[in-house]
Amino acid sequence: MAVDLSMPVLVVDDYQTMIRIIRNLLNQLGFKNIEEAKDGRQALEKLNSGRFGLVISDWNMEPMTGYELLQQVRASDKLKATPFIMVTAESKTENVIAAKKAGVNNYIVKPFNAETLKGKLKSVLGEF
Amino acid sequence: MAAAEAALKIRTAMDQLKATGVRERPLVEVLDLSHQMADAMTAFFGSLDKSIIGEFRYLADFIQKARDEISGLQANDIKDSRLPGASMELDAVVRDTERATESIMSEAEKLMSIEPADLAAYKADVDAAMMRIFEACSFQDLTGQRVTKVISTLRHIEDRVTKFANALGVKDAAPMETAEDARKRELLLNGPAANGPATSQDDIDALFA
Question: In this predicted complex, what is the ipTM?
Answer without folding.
Answer: 0.90
